[in-house]
Amino acid sequence: MSLKIYGTAASRAIRPLWAAEEIGLPYEHIAWHYQGPEVREPAYLAINPNGTVPAIDDNGVRVFESLAITLYLAQRHPLAGLWSATDAGRAHILQWTLWAATEAEPLARQWFHHTGFLPPEQRIPAMADAAIDKLQTRLQVLEKHLTTREWLVEERFTVADLNVAAVLQRLTRLARVPLPHTQAWHQRCLSRPAAQRAWALRPAN
Ligand SMILES: N[C@@H](CCC(=O)N[C@@H](CS)C(=O)NCC(=O)O)C(=O)O
C-alpha cells in the first residue's frame, strides 16, 4: 500500500486517518503509541525527527504535523472535494487551519493537560481555568462565522472543517458559553461516516 499513516488513533493521528477515510484512500495504519519505543527508533525519526505522531509516508513523500498532513492529502486528491479550486477557498482553508493550530489548539491543550493528561500532582487548576476563559472568545469567533453558514468554507465540508473540528474534538467540554451553531456544526462533522470509521480505530481502554 502506498500510503502509510503512523500513530495510534488515540492521538492526533485521528486527523490524517479521518482525512484518508473521507477521501476513500487505501492506507496502512501503523498504530504505534506516542510513548512507545518505535517512535524513538532511527527508522521512524527519519520520517518524523520530532519523534511524535502522526506522520505519513506516501510513496516516499514523508510529512509530519497532523494538520499539514490533512492539507497535503486533501490537495493531492482534489476530486474528493476536501480542497478548493479557488484562491479564495484555499486561503480560507489555510486561514481556518492556522487559526485552529495557533488560536485554539494551544488553549485546548493547556486545559486538557491540566484537567486530565498530566498526573494529578502536576495539574494546576489555574492554568486550566485561564485557558478555558481565553478559549471562549476564540470559540465565539467560530460561532459568529457559523451563524450564517453550515460549513467553514464554500458551503460544503472541506479539510478546513475536518481540521478545526478535530482540533476541537472536546468541544462539548470546552464550551462555557452558548454555541448552538458551533455545536451543531461539530455534530455534523463528527457524525460523518468517515469520521466514525476513523474514531472506530481508537483502541478500547
Ligand atoms: N503539532 C504536532 C504535535 C504532535 C504531537 O505532539 N503528538 C503527540 C501525540 S497526540 C505525541 O506524539 N506526543 C509524544 C511526545 O511528545 O513525545 C502535530 O499536530 O502533529
In short, what is this structure?
The chain has 205 residues and is an alpha+beta fold. The protein has nine helices and four strands; from the N terminus they run βαβαββααααααα.
The major pleated sheet works out as: 4 strands, mixed
Number of beta-strand segments: 4
Under the CATH scheme, the architecture of the largest domain is: Up-down Bundle
The Cα radius of gyration reads 17 Å
Topology overview:
Blueprint: E1 3-6, H1 14-23, E2 28-30, H2 42-45, E3 55-58, E4 61-64, H3 66-76, H4 87-117, H5 125-146, H6 159-167, H7 171-174, H8 180-190, H9 193-199
Parallel strand pairs: 1-2
Antiparallel strand pairs: 1-3, 3-4
Helix pairs in contact: 1-3, 1-6, 1-9, 4-5, 4-6, 5-8
The structure holds glutathione.
Glutathione binds next to helix 3.
Main attributes?
globular; binds glutathione; Glutaredoxin; 205 residues; alpha+beta; Glutathione S-transferase Yfyf (Class Pi), Chain A, domain 2; 4-stranded mixed β-sheet; 4 strands
Describe this structure in words.
The protein is α+β, with helices and mostly antiparallel strands and 205 residues long. The protein has 2 domains: 3-81 and 195-199, 3-Layer(aba) Sandwich (Glutaredoxin), CATH 3.40.30; 87-192, Glutathione S-transferase Yfyf (Class Pi), Chain A, domain 2. Helix content is 53%, strand content 7%. The chain is built from 9 helices and 4 strands, in the order βαβαββααααααα. The protein has a 4-stranded mixed sheet, with helices on one face. It starts with a strand and ends in a 6-residue tail after the last helix. The mean pLDDT is 97. The structure holds glutathione. Glutathione binds at residues 11-12, 34, 51-54, 65-67.
